[in-house]
Amino acid sequence: MLKIAWSPIYSHPLPKGHRFPMEKYELLPEQLLYEGTIEKDNLFEPIALENKWITNTHQPAYFKKLSDLDLTKSEIRKTGFPLSRGLIDREVHIMHGSVQASLFALEYGIAMNIAGGTHHAFSDRGEGFCLLNDIAISANYLIANKLSRKILVVDLDVHQGNGTAEIFGEEPQVFTFSMHGASNYPMKKEKSDLDVELPDKTGDDLYLKTLDRHLKKLLESVAPDFIIYQSGVDVLSTDKLGRLSLSIEGCKRRDKMVLDLAFQNEIPIMCCMGGGYSEKISHIVEAHANTYRLAQEIFF
């Protein structure tokens, strides 16, 4: 059974006019349920992740400042979010959603989190709409509990997974692969194990050929026994914050390529959603929904 983390807390309200589309977290499960891709039994509601698993990845001093709502104005500004208790509660629930989805992936082959993909959170700070890094926390949880020996992070958000790269810079059990826009945020890139930078306006054909080539090489060279997939849809040509030019169909083919790789090689995969900032919310929801449709089609 496809297991998917979702909670009403994911749609934590932001001030009017804020550019982050929180409504997608409510609309996406509604769409999947309406069309029959999933049923209510597919959804599980995460709880707050235990602090010890957060500070297994993030510096305790940073997490304490975050929990105490004690960030400076500059630190708050870099996150892109107005700091509040509700926002912190949302974050720690999202972290549990990805950890639990990783455990379900070990059982069922794949599991997903309707939120997550918070790859700009560093060990000691938040950036770019990311306060805590669910990718890193999930990977470290699996390693600490001896549930994986080699994890491949496939980060296909339009922005480099700079926080994930920093956290795992010296960790041989996690291989970070980020394919992103060369001239997009963050302007100062970190060093992933493999960074593939794409020029502005890259379309479906070049994107998919490049991805196919690298995935095949990584499967052989890394030999992962678990994959964490950051499936951001800000690669779309309609995205306000991206600079690439994928169609919705091209984005779907991208997801199929990653999910096929995991399924055919019997590698458990946890998928987290990442970014999506198209003007029309329908474009964001449709592109994200394709990831879930493919998961059902390929794995079940």
UniProtKB/TrEMBL annotation:
Q: Which SUPFAM superfamilies match?
A: Arginase/deacetylase
Q: Which CDD domains match?
A: HDAC_classIV
Among its keywords, does the record have Hydrolase?
A: yes
Q: Where is the signal peptide?
A: none
- Asked if the keyword Translocase belongs to this entry, the reply reads no
Q: Where is the Histone deacetylase domain?
A: 18-289
Q: Where are the transmembrane segments?
A: none
Sorted alphabetically, the keyword list is:
Hydrolase
Q: Which domain of life is it from?
A: Bacteria
Instruction: State the Pfam families in the record.
Output: Hist_deacetyl
> What family is this protein classified in?
Belongs to the histone deacetylase family.
> What is this protein identified as?
Histone deacetylase
Native source organism of the sequence: Echinicola jeungdonensis
